[in-house]
Every structure is written in C-alpha cells, then in structure tokens.
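Reproducibility note. Readers wishing to regenerate the assembly model reported in the main text can use the exact inputs given here. Chain order matters: entities are listed in the order in which they were concatenated for prediction.
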Amino acid sequence: MNESIVDIRGAKLFLRRDGAGEPLLFLHGVQGLPGWTEALSRLAERFAVIAPDHPGFGRSDAPDWIDDVSDLAFFYLDLLDRLANGRVHIVGHSLGGWIAMAMAIRSTAHFQSLTLIDSAGINIAGVPRGDMFIGAPPELGKLLFAGEAAASRWAAQWQASPELQESYDKNRAAAAKYTWQPRLYDPRLAKWLHRIDVPTHIVWGDADWLIPPAHGEALQQQIRGAQLTLLPGVGHLCDIEAPALLAETVGSFLAELQP
Amino acid sequence: MKVLFFHLMPYADLDLDYQAKYKTDWVILPNSYFDPKKGHALYNRYLDELELAAELGFDGISVNEHHQNAYGLMPSPVVMAAALARRVKTAKIAILGNAFGLRDNPLNLAEEHAMIDVLTGGRLISGMVRGIGAEYYSMGANPAFSHERFHEAHDLVVQAWTRPGPFAFEGKHYRFEYVNVWPRPYQQPHPPIWCPSLGSSETIDWASAKERRYVYIQNFSPVASVIRYLNLYRQTAERLHGYTASSEQIGWAAPIYLAASDEQARAEAKIHIERLFSKFLNLPFEMMFPPGYLSAGSLKGMRAVKRPATAGGSMTIDHLIDAGIFLCGSPDTVRKLLVDAHRKLGFQNFLANLHFATLPADLTENNLRLFAREVMPALQALSDKQWQGMETQAAE
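Running the prediction on these inputs yields the following structure tokens for the assembly.
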C-alpha cells in the first residue's frame, strides 16, 4: 500500500493506494478510516483502489474553506480532474456515499459507476436515523454494528496508536462540521438524483441502526436503474463488520459492467 | 466589590428517580416530566427571590440561558429580565449569558437587549456566551462552527448597538442588508459585556483584548481554577495585550449556603447541593463537549480533568467544600473565605448562587437574608486597597 499527499488548491489530501485494474475511488464514511482496512485490501485484489482521508479527517488538512458536503463534492471533482485518466468507479460509504451523490448530480463525466454503501444524504419522513454524537463509546458501538465482536474490534483499532487516537477526535469534529445539521442529509439532494446517469449499486447492512435500510430502498427508487443488495446481519460499518462479504458484493457488481 | 444574586431557576419539582429510565436531565429527558402548574409556582417564587435580593441591597440580579433540561428553566433569560425590569428599580439586571451565536438570527437578541436597556434606563449587563455543549443538540446548532458564530454574532451585535444605521453586515454565517436597531441601547457606547466561563484561556485571550476589556466571570469551579483563570486574565492583558487590567474586569460565581453555624449549614445544604451535581447538572461527556465544540488541544485537556459538571454523583458536599466549589458555613466562615480570596485575587465582581437544585423557599430566603446582612456589606466595602497585588502573590 502506498501513501501519498496530493495538493488540491492549497489543501493537502492524504491518499492510500493499492492494487491494479480499473481505478476505484473509495470515499470513506462518517467515522473515518482506521488505516488500510481489510475491506480496502480485498477490493485492491481486483481494482486500483484510491482511498483518501476526507478534508478534515485523519491525515488530511482541515481547510477552513471547506464547510459542507457541497464543498467536498466540488473538491473531489477537482481531484478527479487531476487524477483521473478516464473513468473511475466511485464507491462511497456513509458520508462518502453522500459526497459521491453530490458529485454525481453535478457531473458524472469521470464516473464509470456509482456504488453507495449505507449512504447518508437523504431524509425519509418518519424514518429516524441514529445519533452518532450523543452517546458514550459503548452506545456508539451498538449503533454502528450488528454484533458486539465487530464493535470491540473497531474500538480497539482506534486505540492502536496515539496518532489514531487523535484521528478519532479529529474525525468526529469533521463529521460534526459536515453532518450535524440537518443531521446526515441535505434536503436539496433528493430532487436532483434523476441526474445520476451511470450504473448504480446500492449496498446496505440490514442491521444499520444509524441509517436504516429504508434509505437504501428510497435511493433505489430515486436513482434510475439502481440495484439494491442487502447484507444480512451487518450494521452501518459493514466495511469493518463484514469486509469479505462487502468486497465481494461490490466487486462482483462492478465486474459485470461492460467496460 | 459589586455583588450580584445569580439564579438558575431549576425545575425543583423534578422526579428525582428519572435516572432509572434516563441517564441525564438534559436534551433527552421527556418534557412530560415538567408539570406546567408546578412550573408556574416555581417561576413566580424564583422571581420573588430575585426581587427580594434587589430589595436587600444586592448590586444586581442575574438570570441565564439553558435549553431543554431541568437544570435551568430559562430558555430565554430576556423574558425573565423583562419580568424583573419594572419592579426592580435600581439594581442591575444581568443576563449571564445569552448564547448569541446559537441563534440563526442574533440581531433579534441585540434588539431585545437594547429594549431591556432602554426600559431600565441603562441597568442591563449583557452576558455573551457560546452556550454549553448540550445546547448544540437541543437547538440544532453545529458545534463545529461554535467559535466562528460566537465571534461573528458578537461583532454583529456590537456593531448594531454602536454604529449608526442602517448599514450592511456581511459575515460568513450572518448577512444583513439593513442593520438599524431600534431602539438603540440606553448605555453608551453599549451595555457592559460579561463573559461567564467554566475556564477557558481562549475566552480570556479574546475577552481581555484592549478594544474589548470584557468582564470575565469564573463559574462553578474549584478555587484552584478560580485563582488560575482570574490571574491568567490579568497576565494576558499585561503580556499579550499590553495594558493593566482593572479589578472590575474579573469576577467569580459560586454556589453559597449560610446558616447560623458551619454544622447547621452543612446539614441543611447537603442533600440539595449534592443533587445540583448528581441530578441537575448531570451531563455525560459527549453532551457537555460535542465534537468540534472544543479545539483538539482543549478536548484532550478536558478528557484528563474530572469536572464537576460531568462527574455525576461523585460530588459529595465534603468534596465540594474542600475544593472550594461550594462556599458553605456560618456567615463568619464564608465572609472570611471570600475576603481572603479577594485579598489574593482582587476580583471586583461576585455572583452568589444562593439557590440551587431543590433548596426549599424558606431556606433560600434565610440564605439570601443572612448573606445580605452578614456577608455582603463586607464584600461591597472591598476595593483594590485590600488586594495584595499580583507581585505579592507571585512572590509567595
């Protein structure tokens, strides 16, 4: 796995890359990445994976001119203009899925496909989402995972080094900045989803208590031709809880697409 | 020294068994726990207590803002300040504070403060705070923009009070084509601005700046923190901003309970002061400090310190008294404590929180009267003549 830093309009963006094949940009979720995860590793067996830390997260800068998901979307479109030599599979998890949709409604010029995993971004009247900020760590674990083992494994990952402990706090502050209000969605996003014109796969843990699977069903109805796959017994952080299943589910959909 | 009576107006009729079902009385405790008929009686009792304080010769009476909780029933302290404005004839009315940046439109608050100031003929003290973390859950305000919005709301409000209107205000969070506040404040250039805080060097840097010189009040803190932060204010003014701060720029706010003897005071206050921390100011860490509310460095510091506000039931009266968070005893004991603290620190403002949690009306009235008769006159007589000065303290 290679680590590098790319400068986008004065902001340093930290990138992890590995694998060979068609390029795949992985946009991480609202909790950030505790390093190069098993899910990324497995995706890198089939694709040339690029996984940035979003601005404000992990080892990336926190530029004060990026305030919301709309800014992040344009920022990543700038990144694609810089990096992409042709089209890219865009895979967004949680906050990353929201960013990916916000990019796609603006321009899919660099998109080969769109994969949304337990994605934030829309609201469904009467379907509450969980609050990832208000609870103590054990309650957060219950919100983000179906099973306790995965929750403890994930909590331990963030304690592995002082740098990761600091990243954990930094990520939560960035997550608050982008998702606090309205919580985890943009009320204007849904009305532009008809603009998404690339093959779209929606993947959801059926035990996602943070963003319940009804959101996946609604997205499937609103994005033309989208397919929906539910992962049984898996929570919001399905990349941590079921990395092999997730990578296989994402990878096989992309493999069947015509180049 | 100026002495103010500070009221929190808690929901004293709270079902204290709420913790069997809910971990906190903030944000998530259903408002079915609030009985409007009991609330009616409490509001009127508390306003009577504030009016009594004014009659007893306090220099000011003070209200404050908290949202969606049982700890303080004043989501709008302006309403209570207005209710006091006509009957209270000479005492200052201090709103400590209002969270201007919590509002989507701080200009409304600028107008309301100006109204109170005009109505009272210039007796308003205007407190500006960010609001504690829990308010950001309750009001749907983004804690990551808390500092930016606090500063910008402050700039907007002070300009609205001082610049001839109409003018346009163009901020990042607040934008107005026409700022032209009617009425303008009675006090010129504007009502005094106070910054109550649980202890923040960032607030001190900002409040003590030469062009602001706002009054900094250290709240509900161990006496060691009071010493540290009040001295830090003077040092920051001297070293960072290049002027000597006056003692009128600093103050201390603390819960106080008095009775005829130390033993009696402890016995009467114990259950109520312990409930203040275990039942009313019962704030989990994640609610007190939501992500983005503190800088990374401050958050790290807060994790390391056990704070009264987030320590829950572990705050016993003995600990609270030993740490100097709670001033409790006979009038002689408490007077000596405060006069000693003044000799060391020289603060010229003191906020006495003479009601807390479930303290009943009769004990509250005794507390107010005893304090006003036996302690307050000695405090009001204190000036810089009784302060030992910074050098003496440094030499000790």
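We highlight two features of this model. The two ends of chain A are 26 Å apart (CA to CA). Chain A touches chain B at residues 133-136, 166, 169-170, 172-177, 180-181 (CB under 8 Å).
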